[in-house]
């Protein structure tokens, strides 16, 4: 069967949305935590079709956007070394560090390569024995298995010239951070379907219970998202806080056990600094002692990286929904998409950049 | 919620690109916003003149009065830098001929003559050059144009990428023919000659760097005969343009900007081959931003739209032509898309270089 | 995060100590790591992210989901609600 | 002794170059014999048509009858790959504009419009691009032409050499004007507009690789006004050509070949600036093979020679014009030189790339 | 004063030639041994102006032409190594080895650089510490001091990545070989002025005496050459065999003592194979034991280079004037300038290539 | 062999253990090694091959040579011989 097309059926989506309209009776705030889902929602225009009562807020689930400035600057310093071939997912190339991005240093002569998979970086290491190949291992639990596999393979092949610059982040601690905030507005969660493909959703019932929010595992096609929202709204209206699965073709409660075992071997929980949010305890993964030799931060001494997010930036408040972007003193003046001071202006789907662009460009465009 | 705002969708870009205004980066060659900014900042002020300011794929101008020319001249140029030189469905030679034949033709001109400038990296097999020039000859014959002037330069190894070919082309625009990106009018129909993204995906697949094989052939083709047939059937065509670098979305934005109109297209009507869609799904690309080399955007008064489609359907390279939208007055200088599920969003120009996403 | 797409396994092999496979995404094929799918066999569907197969796809579950959603749709069609809005959405 | 034979002098070449017919080497871009062989073997057969076969710096052609054009069109192209981008007396931008303005003008045409195709290596400072385009604007203004179409491509670092610029140009040839390399006739005078070798030596010096500093400025200049003044005074000029790559010797050989005549020049009359001669002495170059970018060869009936010289002397870039020889019937397709001491030798085309000699 | 222009005075040259005409009474064969002089003679057309009685024959004094095929192939093998930057005088780039030339391997990716001076190659070595820089040290006694200086400098700078591929040849042994041949036709010599600038001409009186030939040290401008020929003809007509100096502004009898001392320190005589002639005992220079570490042949093992000049080639007989090129069975068929089988077809001033080109192209060109 | 040209020494210095100089060849200058000319001073003429100064040039000797040759030429001019041939040579 064609798994993607069937879930892009516009007619069916609209009928599910009609069911949401029939179900909803009052205002609800639902967060899709995953940036890929944010992307899908904006691309399909799903948010416009929802009843006014439902406000979708976009979570911090974009790994390129939440990677800390310090780690980006470390990556830039490592990538600039003449003996290094720095491999990265494509979307990391334009993330601004303190002064540069990977594009700039590539233009200035650094060897930066875009790969689709970390396993391609291992091949590059094999083909370039006189170079050090470093992979910028960003991502959530979905990407971690691929990165782990690359290290396992490099070790099995005896490669001494492959390492990871690790910036893994994990979803459950972020959900805790959001829901545990005193000014939290999120009443229901769409859980990230591909994270759950690996991890399952056995970790979520305690969260749902603790904060009293429904959590629905949701896929990425418009129909998946509409279904996830419907199931969340139904629970909200009923007052339940179950963990449900709207992505059962991909996700099981237990997740992929083999992948989880691989992750436990290669990675261990560490504190992680999220750009725009700050450090969340035990919210990321670092390499275990067995694989510490593959850690680029150990292999390359990049000196002391001194970074500081702008003191003007109120990203933390904005990301928690406490303030609106135009309430920031830097908004649109010192801070623009061309010269972002904070994460919400970095991401094209970030609240600050969205506000900036809409206010700048869209004054004459009324909703259809 | 920003209920009164439409979401802008800048091609597949997250995060926003950093501004690069001190050195040239790859995005300046993307054909998208960074290219437009570079042109606006560096080239346009330096060369400023009314003909250049037309911002079409071609320059259109008369000759001195003594030449007694009826009609106008259409002139265009493109440099071709594709890697690899050969890919499914075409090669750099066919590309170099078709690209310029097409740009010249977007004036409604009869393309006549081409120049060809070769920049060759030392070490290129002469046999490669022979294959490329044979392909150029075949494409020129197909298009009915002649390559009448050339130039050959050789650069040291490591100072080029095998072979670059620049072509420039000249054509004759018959008297009274008025076609240009500034002429789209509310009410016009928007037609595309076939499925989008074949060229970009075919080349990316041939490049091999991302490790995928796609069952896709480049659409590279000369469009001048399609255009001649189209114009015979629909003489009041307002705009012709080939959505090359930056894809359909970027090209429609250029037109919307030039004509100060809104162009609205319907996602469900935009043709994309299944394999192209699969490749785009895999890489996080949007086919509306992927390059084409044998596709034609036609903007034509609604009353001639059916005649235009019928003529296109009867011509090679136009069999899959389809109406994808219409021109509206507002919001001016905007391209909107009705999504599959009935939403509407702004379709912006490509922000920088298109890159595979994980997110 | 986590762009991943479904595809069909057309070939399985070992490469440099990892279980690998060729995946057909519908006219596009690519290699992916099957290390976390020890039970996968040729013909199975999987969902691939960054060259790594995350999990098997269940055709049965997909059909069930679609059936459920179609039921909702049919209820909605029977009720005849919101028709105007739907057509105004440009479909 | 070979008493009945003249020594051929293939530019400064010892030993004879090896034949390179499997891969492109630097000599294929020298503008000399290897370039000619590459064109003859690869490009000419592929693109074969009567206009290309004219083998002039420009292509000259009419438009379709419906265009009612009086006169003809002159079209030309060159890619520019100079390193460094800036040198004494000029830069790649001035070169790109003047080179094509000049080639177009060699038809006796009024040059009108240029296209410009930029291939930029990622990492190029935008400020460099601004300096180059400012220089292009200045040169275009000086020449009185407009840059009306452009193209920008960016390639990865290590796949170009900073910046390559292709220009193509179009001009109008008034009715009845007949100028071309095939029109030299026995009895004609051969005039050169000034001293030889300045450009080649200025660039080589700027490159720094050979470690010398020369007090020499490139002669790069637009020659169209010189030509217009010349043609007003000497309307029956037979041949105009700029001795660029390959130098005077190679260019005269092309003319001798096209016209099937003998061109005989006198060494003592060939102007060369002292510093250029010194640099050539040091490197073992012959200034007759060194590139110029602002010099004009004029072949004109003897009776108009003085009028031609007078007009040139009154015009910028022609002050040092001098008659250097004449056209004879035999030996056809040969260039001969009367040496300073009264000998005669064949001046052949440049064999391959010009290289500093120790011997 | 302007040393070059004064000696290019065409009027004066013609008057000296007139004096030669008045002096000569019968046929004489004079050899200019130096390829640079051959070049100057052809370029100025001096030979055409000489009386018919004087035949100039061109000696083997072109270092790029006489470098042996084996050494060229060695150079190509060394230059093809990825760690090597191979530096050479420009005219060496087009000399054909057995299958390739330096141009071909450069096009195929080898790092080949043209330098004006071996001291520039030392600079390249200094700037590229991770590369091996090899200079192709060809040349006669004139070039040897520059090459020696480069080695002395590299040693003083402690450079471990600079070496020479040495192909030095010496003039006096070649003169012995030519004059000592049973079928020698040479009756007078123009000695190479720039060789003598370094070496002086104290080595020549024994040669002049042994073979009874006048030897005149001669410069490179047309006037120098005309003068040298005049002085040689005067001696020939008188029947003397003195060593005279027609280049006294540059050359002294003792030469440059400091340069000679430098040469003795760095180089020592060795047997040398001359392309087209064969091995002449003690006719070349190799590095002394003190500098053996700078010998590229020691540093790089290029395996066994197997070359063989074509058995058809009768270059030896042609270079000694015993046969004419068209008497060679390969001439113009198997052997052409595009595909030379022997040295006289390699050089653009070689007898075989000259014959080939004149017969091919010049049938219709009569002498002025 | 041995292209070498005369030039004037305009500067002398030591560089990486060698005696070096700047030579003016008449509008063109280049560095050359003066190691074999310990006695050379700024203003002297030398003849340079491959970046190495082979010897000093003697202006006096040059003049003498030219004088000698001019004498020959004058003799020849007085004799009035070969004039036809000379002019036919294109001078
Ligand atoms: S506008 Fe900029 S500085 Fe202000 S909160 Fe947003 S990202 Fe931070
Ligand atoms: S023609 Fe060729 S093979 Fe014969 S002697 Fe000359 S170089 Fe040797
Ligand atoms: Mg174009
Ligand atoms: Mg184009
Ligand atoms: Mg050219
Ligand atoms: Mg176009
Ligand atoms: Mg996800
Ligand atoms: Mg040209
Ligand atoms: Mg030109
Ligand atoms: Mg273009
Ligand atoms: Mg020209
Ligand atoms: Mg010499």
From TrEMBL, chains A, E:
<keyword id="KW-0479">Metal-binding</keyword>
<dbReference type="Pfam" id="PF01924">
    <property type="entry name" value="HypD"/>
</dbReference>
<dbReference type="GO" id="GO:0051604">
    <property type="term" value="P:protein maturation"/>
</dbReference>
<protein>
    <submittedName>
        <fullName>Hydrogenase maturation protein HypD</fullName>
    </submittedName>
</protein>
<dbReference type="InterPro" id="IPR002780">
    <property type="entry name" value="Hyd_form_HypD"/>
</dbReference>
<dbReference type="GO" id="GO:0051539">
    <property type="term" value="F:4 iron, 4 sulfur cluster binding"/>
</dbReference>
<dbReference type="InterPro" id="IPR042244">
    <property type="entry name" value="HypD_2_sf"/>
</dbReference>
<dbReference type="GO" id="GO:0070025">
    <property type="term" value="F:carbon monoxide binding"/>
</dbReference>
<comment type="similarity">
    <text>Belongs to the HypD family.</text>
</comment>
<dbReference type="GO" id="GO:0005506">
    <property type="term" value="F:iron ion binding"/>
</dbReference>
<keyword id="KW-0408">Iron</keyword>
<dbReference type="InterPro" id="IPR042243">
    <property type="entry name" value="HypD_1"/>
</dbReference>
TrEMBL record, chains B, D:
<dbReference type="InterPro" id="IPR010918">
    <property type="entry name" value="PurM-like_C_dom"/>
</dbReference>
<dbReference type="InterPro" id="IPR016188">
    <property type="entry name" value="PurM-like_N"/>
</dbReference>
<protein>
    <submittedName>
        <fullName>Hydrogenase maturation protein, carbamoyl dehydratase HypE</fullName>
    </submittedName>
</protein>
<comment type="similarity">
    <text>Belongs to the HypE family.</text>
</comment>
<feature type="domain" description="PurM-like C-terminal">
    <location>
        <begin position="185"/>
        <end position="335"/>
    </location>
</feature>
<dbReference type="InterPro" id="IPR036921">
    <property type="entry name" value="PurM-like_N_sf"/>
</dbReference>
<dbReference type="Pfam" id="PF00586">
    <property type="entry name" value="AIRS"/>
</dbReference>
<dbReference type="InterPro" id="IPR036676">
    <property type="entry name" value="PurM-like_C_sf"/>
</dbReference>
<dbReference type="Pfam" id="PF02769">
    <property type="entry name" value="AIRS_C"/>
</dbReference>
<feature type="domain" description="PurM-like N-terminal">
    <location>
        <begin position="71"/>
        <end position="172"/>
    </location>
</feature>
<dbReference type="GO" id="GO:0051604">
    <property type="term" value="P:protein maturation"/>
</dbReference>
<dbReference type="InterPro" id="IPR011854">
    <property type="entry name" value="HypE"/>
</dbReference>
Automatic annotation (TrEMBL), chains C, F:
<protein>
    <submittedName>
        <fullName>Hydrogenase maturation protein HypC</fullName>
    </submittedName>
</protein>
<dbReference type="GO" id="GO:1902670">
    <property type="term" value="F:carbon dioxide binding"/>
</dbReference>
<dbReference type="Pfam" id="PF01455">
    <property type="entry name" value="HupF_HypC"/>
</dbReference>
<comment type="similarity">
    <text>Belongs to the HupF/HypC family.</text>
</comment>
<dbReference type="InterPro" id="IPR001109">
    <property type="entry name" value="Hydrogenase_HupF/HypC"/>
</dbReference>
<dbReference type="GO" id="GO:0051604">
    <property type="term" value="P:protein maturation"/>
</dbReference>
<dbReference type="GO" id="GO:0005506">
    <property type="term" value="F:iron ion binding"/>
</dbReference>
<dbReference type="InterPro" id="IPR019812">
    <property type="entry name" value="Hydgase_assmbl_chp_CS"/>
</dbReference>
């Amino acid at each position: 069967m064609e798994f993607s097309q069937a879930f892009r059926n516009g007619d069916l989506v609209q009928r599910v949305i009609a069911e949401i309209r029939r179900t909803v009776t009052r205002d609800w705030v639902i967060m899709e935590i995953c940036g890929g889902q944010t992307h899908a929602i904006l691309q399909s225009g799903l948010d416009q079709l929802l009843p006014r009562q439902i406000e979708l807020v976009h979570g911090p689930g974009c790994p390129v956007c939440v990677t800390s400035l310090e780690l980006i600057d470390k990556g830039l310093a490592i990538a600039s070394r003449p003996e290094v071939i720095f491999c990265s997912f494509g979307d990391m190339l334009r993330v601004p560090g303190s002064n540069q991005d990977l594009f700039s240093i590539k233009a200035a002569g650094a060897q930066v390569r875009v790969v689709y998979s970390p396993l391609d970086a291992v091949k590059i290491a094999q083909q370039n024995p006189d170079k050090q190949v470093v992979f910028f291992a960003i991502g959530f639990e979905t990407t971690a298995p691929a990165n782990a596999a690359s290290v396992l393979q490099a070790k099995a092949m005896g490669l001494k010239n492959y390492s990871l610059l690790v910036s893994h982040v994990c979803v459950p601690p972020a959900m805790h951070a959001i829901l545990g905030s005193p000014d939290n507005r999120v009443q229901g969660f769409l859980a990230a379907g591909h994270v759950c493909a690996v991890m399952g959703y056995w970790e979520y019932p305690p969260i749902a219970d603790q904060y009293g929010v429904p959590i629905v595992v949701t896929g990425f096609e418009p129909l998946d998202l509409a279904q996830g929202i419907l199931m969340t709204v139904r629970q909200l209206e009923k007052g339940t806080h179950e963990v449900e699965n709207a992505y059962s073709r991909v996700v099981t409660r237990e997740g992929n056990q083999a992948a989880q075992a691989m992750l436990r071997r290669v990675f261990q929980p560490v504190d992680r600094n999220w750009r725009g949010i700050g450090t969340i305890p035990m919210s990321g993964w670092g390499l275990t002692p067995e694989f510490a030799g593959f850690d680029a931060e150990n292999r390359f001494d990049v000196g002391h990286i001194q970074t500081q997010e702008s003191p003007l930036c109120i990203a933390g408040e904005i990301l928690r929904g406490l303030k609106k972007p135009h309430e920031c003193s830097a908004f649109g003046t010192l801070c623009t998409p061309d010269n972002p001071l904070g994460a919400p202006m970095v991401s094209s789907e970030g609240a600050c950049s969205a506000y900036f662009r809409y206010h700048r460009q869209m004054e004459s465009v009324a909703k259809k | 919620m920003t209920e009164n705002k439409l979401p802008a969708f800048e091609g597949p870009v997250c995060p926003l690109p950093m501004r690069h205004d001190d050195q040239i980066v790859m995005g300046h060659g993307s054909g998208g916003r960074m290219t437009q900014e570079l042109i606006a900042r560096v080239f346009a002020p330096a060369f400023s003149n009314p003909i250049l300011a037309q911002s079409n794929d071609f320059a259109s101008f008369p000759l001195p009065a003594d030449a007694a020319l009826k009609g106008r001249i259409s002139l265009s140029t493109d440099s071709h830098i594709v890697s690899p030189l050969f890919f499914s469905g075409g090669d750099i030679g066919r590309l170099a001929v078709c690209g310029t034949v097409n740009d010249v033709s977007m004036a409604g001109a009869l393309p006549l003559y081409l120049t060809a400038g070769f920049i060759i990296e030392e070490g290129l097999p002469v046999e490669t050059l022979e294959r490329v020039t044979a392909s150029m000859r075949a494409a020129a014959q197909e298009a009915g144009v002649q390559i009448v002037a050339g130039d050959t330069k050789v650069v040291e190894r490591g100072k080029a990428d095998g072979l670059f070919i620049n072509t420039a082309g000249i054509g004759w625009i018959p008297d009274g023919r008025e076609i240009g990106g500034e002429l789209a009018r509310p009410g016009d129909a928007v037609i595309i000659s076939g499925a989008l993204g074949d060229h970009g995906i075919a080349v990316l697949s041939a490049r091999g760097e991302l490790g995928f094989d796609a069952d896709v052939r480049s659409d590279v083709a000369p469009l001048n005969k399609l255009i001649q047939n189209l114009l015979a059937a629909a003489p009041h065509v307002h705009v012709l343009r080939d959505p090359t670098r930056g894809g359909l979305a970027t090209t429609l934005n250029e037109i919307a900007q030039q004509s100060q109109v809104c162009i609205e297209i319907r996602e469900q009507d935009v043709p994309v081959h299944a394999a192209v869609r699969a490749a785009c799904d895999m890489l996080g690309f949007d086919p509306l931003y992927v390059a084409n080399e044998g596709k034609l955007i036609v903007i034509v008064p609604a009353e001639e739209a059916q005649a235009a489609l019928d003529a296109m359907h009867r011509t090679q390279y136009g069999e899959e032509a389809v109406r994808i939208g219409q021109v509206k007055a507002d919001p001016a200088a905007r391209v909107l898309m009705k999504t599959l599920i009935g939403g509407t969003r702004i379709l912006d120009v490509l922000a920088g270089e298109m890159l595979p996403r994980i997110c | 995060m986590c762009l991943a797409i479904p595809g069909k396994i057309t070939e399985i092999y070992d490469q440099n100590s990892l279980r690998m496979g060729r995946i057909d995404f519908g006219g596009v094929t690519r290699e992916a790591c099957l290390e976390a799918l020890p039970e996968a066999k040729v013909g199975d569907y999987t969902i691939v992210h960054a060259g790594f197969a995350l999990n098997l796809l269940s055709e049965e579950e997909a059909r069930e989901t679609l059936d459920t959603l179609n039921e909702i749709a049919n209820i909605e069609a029977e009720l005849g609600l919101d028709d105007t809005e739907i057509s105004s959405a440009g479909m």
